[in-house]
# Entry
Amino acid sequence: MKLLEEKIIHDGKVFEGNILKVDSFVNHQIDVKFMNEIGKEFKRLFDGEEITKILTIEASGIGIACIVAQYFDVPVLFAKKTKSVNIAGDVYTSKVESFTHKRTYDIIVSKEFLHENDKVLIIDDFLAQGSALCGLIKLIKDAKAEVVGAGIVIEKAYQEGGQLVRDMGVRVESLARIKSMGVDGSIEFIN
Amino acid sequence: MKLLEEKIIHDGKVFEGNILKVDSFVNHQIDVKFMNEIGKEFKRLFDGEEITKILTIEASGIGIACIVAQYFDVPVLFAKKTKSVNIAGDVYTSKVESFTHKRTYDIIVSKEFLHENDKVLIIDDFLAQGSALCGLIKLIKDAKAEVVGAGIVIEKAYQEGGQLVRDMGVRVESLARIKSMGVDGSIEFIN
# Structure
């Protein structure tokens, strides 16, 4: 998505340690008008697919998912992060490793909101190592629901997550795929 | 807002310890179509006010704020929760006490995204003791920006937060104001 690539180059900031900050329009401040363009693009990509629910993960994913959901006319369900699962058996859980924050946490969704007949589109801001995405896929599979695909805003395509999930047979559509980036601010995309 | 009161009565669940769960359309699953009705209502209430930014707090607030922001055509900024502030002096911070989770945490917003000339509408899902709302107001005041008001989805009007914030001279508009609720599921509203 050309518009997104331009925005990442213009507003994104690259830091030491493989960090891309897009705080001005995705992860802290949210450019809601721009997110509508993201929503339209995901709708174009997944048009014709039967989708009953959008699944994302707190926190940054929620805003994007809500805007995107308007184009599919379905509710959003967001997985919650918890430090330890001590809730009764009424939730699906999986483990997610955060490489940025160097810790592992559990994510949960209530069984009440994810059913066998759900056809789920996952929406998230970033895909890098793929741990969060694999965790979300596990939740859907545990519920015996169908994974329609994953719509990702920014994929760090030089990391293994995208390949890993595509190799699982899951359709992944990333709107910007970063090939490489440098602390001088240079960012190259895969077309 | 009659529609919201009906939805709370229909879908909300009251638990021991003054807990109202609206997980089916606000706090876990988000009914995006319904949130658009919420957005229209806040637009009606704050119409004519100059607003440059919507401020909320992660996580549940983000989805609501993004949908509402579309009616005001402004970006959303969400305060992040952190356990301890060890970030450089480029953020505004305040302390928030969570009565539900019985802990205190810091919230931060980057100075980059909150400026002296901003006119800020706060949007949040719940108002009870008012700690989160007071924390958000402090962030705005620290930035020397203007607090236009606070749009709250559900106010527990029998708790002191609403009065506390209104006494500070801040305009608070709550779409449903709960007068009392019981574990039998009964919920009374203030009209």
